Amino acid sequence: MATRFVVPEAGVLATILLRFVGASVLMLAFTLPRMPVRVGRKDAPVIVMLGLVQFALFPWLFTMSLVHIPAARAAMVLSTQPLFTLAFAALVGRERLSLLKIVGGVIALAAVGFALGDRLVATNPDTNTHKGDLYMFGAVLSGSIYNVASGYALRKYRALVVASVMIPSGTVAIAALVLWRGDWAAFANISASGWLAVLYLTSFGGAITFFLWIWALEHTAPSRVALAVTLNPVSAAVLGALVLSEPVSWRLLVGVCGVVGALVLVNWTVIVRSLRGDTPTPS
User: Fold this and answer.
1) What is the largest CA-CA distance in the chain?
2) Which one in 5, 193, 257, 271 has a CA-CA gap of 20 to 30 Å to 153?
3) 162-191: b (≥16 Cβ within 10 Å) or e
4) pTM of the model
């Protein structure tokens, strides 16, 4: 939601760059006093490449999709990411393919579709819709590959170290793109409220969110982490109702319940083990 205050003033790329520069600074400021940010020479290219995939390619594809399709349609395509992550993870042996995970992913996808159904129906597709779908599908694939492949780095290094390398790597790539496009003048158009929104995007919407995502990938199965993306569209709609007084439909409430139910279903074995006092194991 904070992007609504910044993008109209600074543009898409400038907003993304500000978010990632601030997130990089905060991440390094938090990590360096606690531990050195060092990775092996053989591991560095792989970790940097993963950072470019998640923190440069993914946001670029995501943003390009929104140029051609509305947010509701983009959210539906993005909500397929848990199923693709599960497929990739099972393919490379990162986790076991289970009925609960498949059903949970399908339920979450259906819940998002139901919650946003009225907006999808109201949308008039144009000739560029397929471009937006392809861009978002590319974002889904890149995010799914990252969710699975990041295990290479997280098996060797702490989440703080990995985040402190990956996020700045993506930031450098985005800065190079902004420099090439010559979008620097857009920063002068940001108002005081816009800078407050940037502050939120760099902290809660940036460094904290990015680190928690990487930390979650370190501690549990990639498909469980990926399922969290289905919360984005419904939580944005809920916040829109609370902050911007946007109408709350019964479809939205059912969608929220569906997504929460899917999260509980996919994590059911972990919940049961925790209640029994057993030590949970990623699967």
Assistant:
1) 58
2) 271
3) bbbbbbbbbbbbbeeebeeeebeebbeebe
4) 0.79
Contacts of 4 (CB under 8 A, 6+ apart): none
Instruction: Categorise residue 280: left if φ over 0, alpha if ψ from -120 to 50, beta otherwise.
Output: beta
CA distances from 50 to 80, 81, 93, 148, 165 (A): 21, 17, 19, 10, 10
| Rounded CA separation 252/238 (Å) | 8
Q: Where are the domains of the chain?
A: 3-276
pLDDT in 10s for each residue of the chain, 283 residues: 566 667 777 777 888 888 899 999 999 999 999 999 999 999 999 999 999 999 999 988 887 887 777 766 777 778 888 888 888 888 888 877 778 778 888 887 787 777 666 655 555 555 567 788 888 889 999 999 999 999 989 999 999 999 999 999 999 999 998 888 876 777 778 888 888 888 988 998 889 988 999 998 988 888 778 777 777 766 666 666 666 565 666 776 777 777 777 777 777 776 676 667 665 555 5
Query: CB of 163 within 8 A of CB of 31?
Result: yes
Given a contact cutoff of 8 angstroms between Cβ atoms, the answer to whether 174 and 61 are in contact is: no
Compute the distance between CA of residue 234 and CA of residue 24 in angstroms, rounded to an integer: 28
Identity of residue 43: D
CA-CA distances (angstroms) from residue 145 to 87, 216, 263?
A: 10, 16, 21
Q: Are 233 and 85 in contact (CB under 8 A)?
A: no
Nearest CA to 172 out of 21, 2, 28 is that of 21
